[in-house]
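Summary: Need help interpreting a holo structure output

Steps to reproduce:
1. Submit the protein chain below together with the SMILES for 2-oxoglutaric acid.
2. Request a joint structure prediction with the ligand placed.
3. Inspect the structure token block that comes back.

Expected: a single structure record containing both the chain and the bound molecule.
Actual: see attached output.

Input attached:
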Amino acid sequence: MGETNEVEELVTREAELVAELKDVRGMLARAQDVPTSTEALKASRGYAFDADGPLDEVVRGSAEALARYGFCVLDNVIPADQIERLREEAEQAEINVESNARAVREAVKSGTAIEDLVGKNGFELRPAPRVGRPPKLVNDVVWLPEYAKHLAHPTTTAIAKAVLDDHLRIAQLHLRPVASDAADGTPGGFGRPQFRGRKDTREWHTDWPHDLSAYGGNRADLNAGCIRQPFPDVAMCLVMIWYLTDVDQDSGATFVVPGSHRDPRNPRGPEDGISVTSPIPGDMQVTAKAGSVFIQDSRCWHASAMHNTSGHTRVAIVNRWCPWWLSVDDYSPNAPFNTVCRPLNQSEFDALPEALKPYLRHVCPTEADSLQQPVLDRAQAAAEQNQWGFLYLEEHPDEVAEANSDVHVDIGLEGSR
Ligand SMILES: O=C(O)CCC(=O)C(=O)O
Ligand SMILES: [Fe+2]
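--- attached output ---
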């Protein structure tokens, strides 16, 4: 009986301390002028950093915002005098991507085997990097040569490396226009016209590899895989949305729920009781100028705007950056149309800017991929540390048994019950 009381008392005290710790962390953040509410975050744009600022400060601030809010915005990534050119290129690329996809779909529908379309005029298909897979639509980057010069920007890649790991791969790349209200009365916004135009509706989701419906639901041929809920508290993919038009609440800015990347629920979670189409308290749209990059942890709850009353299409390019240890294209074995690792042939790969090549090597079947330099440096340092231990054993046989006597490892008790 006495023991039960003691356990209960300790459980209560633990809960009180956890609540107090949360309060103290909130006070500390406020004392450091860190926005802790959506209103404060919107008003201050405390999620935004200037790409022209000192690299280490910008990387630290962006990584902290990604950890705290699940997203950040990097302003001024693309120089102002190049934006118009990139926007025009992206608008033409959208037409090319769509007409290519349509041509392939129609040919396949009328009975031609997709393999027979490779190399044929009017169809841009490329062999998939993995043997046994059907060919896929060519990577959209082939229609974005000017944009490709910016895609491996030193600041965005430094942020991704700081958050994910040193060897990165671009797992997906696609355009994402958000139409404006049309002259014929079709409302602006993302998605099917019948659902567009309302400011009070959303299309909440999280992105691959945290996209719960995994592009294919129960279709084994299309399912690209999804991490199981509750998601481990690890950033596994950074989604970068490169805005080529100014965005705000009227012009197609991305919706986010700050802090949602660490919430165990998910808008599509079958047990979580959330409507993907309804606003969520605390949600917000970012604001950003053309040439900025919105970066989010793929776990962050977000949505394309279902309205755009600005009078112009929101032009944006989306890419998903992953660390080397994430299996980026192992599933959806028969999905020529999805955006996963769309391939490049050797000459298309060779034409990429040098700085971009390391991040797209894996989509070119004839290009040997190898780990990027910092990963090799780390491994070399570890190999030398290992050798040093054996040298110590050889040279100090009488001291070796005591050399680790000051290394103490705690048994972690937090959350262990
Ligand atoms: O359109 C946007 O702002 C968001 C795009 C998005 O959620 C996606 O491409 O997965
Ligand atoms: Fe998304």
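--- end attachment ---

Reviewer comment: The chain has two domains: 17-44, 47-376. The chain has a mean pLDDT of 96.
Status: needs-info
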